[in-house]
Amino acid sequence: MIKSISDTALLQNGLRMPWLGLGVYKAEEGQEVIDAIKHAVAAGYRSIDTASFYKNEEGVGEAVKQVDVPREELFITTKVWNSEQGYEETLRSFKESLEKLDMDYVDLFLVHWPVSGKYKETWKALESLYKEGKTKAIGVCNFKIHHLEDLMKDCEIKPMVNQVEYHPRLTQKDLLAFCKDQGIQVEAWRPLLKGEIFDEPILTALAEKHNKTVAQVILRWDLQNGVITIPKSVNENRIKENADIFDFELSMEDMEQIDSLNKDLRNGPDPDEF
C-alpha cells in the first residue's frame, strides 16, 4: 500500500519515481509556475512534470533553484513536442529544454505524442540521451498498445513510462494490463478530468464515506491501480489537498464502483488522430 507522499514506483531500470507529482500544463511562465512549485515542494511533492510545449521550463528551473530541497532529491520530467520530432531535431529540442531548465540532466524525458513516421527516430534520440546519462529514464506519452508494439519491434531500450489520459471516464484497462506485462509504468495526465466529474453521485458518495473530496478519491484510485498521477494546479490549497491522499484506502468494492464509470471517453485528442 502507498502510505506516504515520499513513496515511489520502481521503474524497469531501477530508478524510483514518486507516485504523486505536480503537472504544470498551462501554469504561466514566471511567478505563477514558480509559486506553484514552491507550494508543491513545501507540501512534500518531489516530482514536477513540464514539457517544451508548456513554455514554462525556465520557470520550473528557477523554482528548483529557489526551493530548499536539493536538485538530486527532485524528479523533473520534460517532453519533446510533435514539431520537434525526428532524430536530430529531438537532440536539439532536448538541448534547448536543458538550457531553459538550467540543469545538467532531467530525470525523465518523454515523447509527447506518437507522431506517425517520426516517433521511431525520435526514440533513437532518447536512447542515445539515456546512454549518455543526460536523462535518467525515457518514456512516451499517449502511446496506444499498437504504438508500443511497433516501437518495441525495433527499439534497443523499452519505454520506462507511458503517460496517458487516464480518469474514471477513461480507464484504459487493456493498455494498463499491456504496460504492466511489459514493465512499463503508466502515468495519468488530466486525472481529475478538469473537475467535470466532481458531481458524479458514485464519487460524491465515496467522498462522503471516506471523509475526503472527490478529487482525493480519484487520485487515490489512480495510485491503487498502480498509476502514477500528476494533478495540475497553481492553487496552494488545492495542491495541498491533492497530496492529502495517503491516510485512507479504497476497498475493492469502492474501486469497482469507480471503474464502472468508464465510458472510454477522451477529454483530450485521440493519439491516432493527433
Automatic annotation (TrEMBL):
Family in the record: Belongs to the aldo/keto reductase family.
Biological source species: Fictibacillus marinisediminis
Single GO term (MF): oxidoreductase activity, acting on the CH-OH group of donors, NAD or NADP as acceptor
Pfam families according to UniProt: Aldo_ket_red
Protein name: Aldo/keto reductase
PROSITE patterns the UniProt entry points to: ALDOKETO_REDUCTASE_1, ALDOKETO_REDUCTASE_2, ALDOKETO_REDUCTASE_3
InterPro entries according to UniProt: AKR (IPR020471), AKR5G (IPR044500), Aldo/ket_reductase_CS (IPR018170), NAD(P)_OxRdtase_dom_sf (IPR036812), NADP_OxRdtase_dom (IPR023210)
Gene3D superfamilies assigned: NADP-dependent oxidoreductase domain
Site (Lowers pKa of active site Tyr): 79
Keyword match Oxidoreductase: yes
Native organism taxonomy: Bacteria, Bacillati, Bacillota, Bacilli, Bacillales
Entry keywords, A to Z: NADP, Oxidoreductase
Active site: 54
Residue stretches making up the NADP-dependent oxidoreductase domain: 28-262
Binding residue positions for substrate: 112
